Amino acid sequence: MPKIKKVIIFNLLTVVGLIFPLVVLSDPSPDVPEKEITKNMTKANYCAVDDDCLLVHYACPFDRGAYLNKDEADRISKMVSDYLKKQTGMCVSDCAGHGGSPACRDGKCVPRICEPNKEYTSGHTERCLCPKGTVYSFLSVGVGATTFKCVEKRKAFAPRDGKTLLFLGQDWETIIDYMHDVIRMPFGFTTYTSIQNLEGLTSAADASGGIQNARSLLVRYPEAALQVGLYMVGALDGVIRGVYDKNIEKLASWLKKNEDTPVYLRIGYEFDLPQNKYEPQKYILAYRYIVDKLRAAGIENASYVWHSYVGFVEGSRERWYPGDDYVDWVAISFFDAFNTWEMKRIAEIAKKHDKPFMIAEATPRGLDIHQGEKTWKMWYQKLFSFIDEYDVKALCYINCDWEKIPMFKGQGWENARVQDNAFIKENWLKKIRGERFQRDFFFRPLQKTQ
Known about the structure:
Layout: H1 3-26, H2 34-43, E1 53-56, E2 66-69, H3 73-85, E3 102-105, E4 108-111, E5 120-122, E6 134-141, E7 146-152, E8 165-169, H4 172-181, E9 188-194, H5 214-220, E10 225-231, H6 236-241, H7 245-257, E11 263-267, H8 280-296, E12 302-308, E13 329-334, H9 340-352, E14 357-362, H10 373-389, E15 394-398, H11 422-432
């Protein structure tokens, strides 16, 4: 072959070799793997101004969407389309797509971030995400638009004024029966454990007070919140000395595992019940110790509840108060509807410290549900009037037949199952279906932000 022809052929091969990679880059084959498409998406995310950016949604496995430069969108979309045409297996979606309208920040297209405490009306076109350390607090929910604010996480576990969260307890069988017979989903459920054993969180446990099984509740009702009573009787010294540090670590691990579940943790509940024998200063130290440990572990889905039994005590209950930095809610027990004087004193403490007010345990002690209208007027009517008067932001009702629970049998607690009397059930449902107990006022994080 003459030399001139060799040079021409070599140059032609060189040009083809240079062009071919460009063709592959701009028009990739359908065999481009998923990781390569993801890398291309990352490279296609650049901008100078907000208008350069698009949020493009794709099918699984790219259903999180992609923030792209608008000039790159067609190229990336073709890559994704070609890839999806060749996929025949099942794809598992993580259902955690981007939710924020695109914005340009530091040369990258990113979700638009809301300003804390500013009211937004979010439709289908303009959305923003709450910044780190805040969560969504829904003010109204509609088909076309939702009004919300981004509020500090520690304060976001309470509804706005005039609204009440409904919790149902207090053992697994009682809760399951209620859900079957009443068929009205509360905001959350009540369960119990102890700092000594942490029983009932990850598996079923019964200390003769009814089966506790937080894990089963969250599996059955993943959207539910939990109100957890943390028993500490006889353990204050051990908590302060670090004897239960391993259990606190396990509690933190459980909270992290369920990080999307709001948890209302009643540390040493009914601190002023004489039988509990909680010495005020030790109680404060133990309460603070647990909160400090959980915060150090990065727990963000727990609110800490200071819960009074509201029996008579000499002197001020605030000698048990751990401090505003450690208390997120102030709570009471509501058993005797004629004992509202002591309850009002705790309501005043909640107002003084600007804390949301909770009824952490409520049951018509000593009144038989089968008396119907009489029991309703003597107890339930007074309960709901108290809630309205003091703007109680959480009601935790114990729907037990107490005589069937070994720990309480024969002590005069009677039956509190609302479904066991037609009059009580009808009026109960009227109340909890009312404006105050609607579920759509509360936050539910739309997506975690980094």
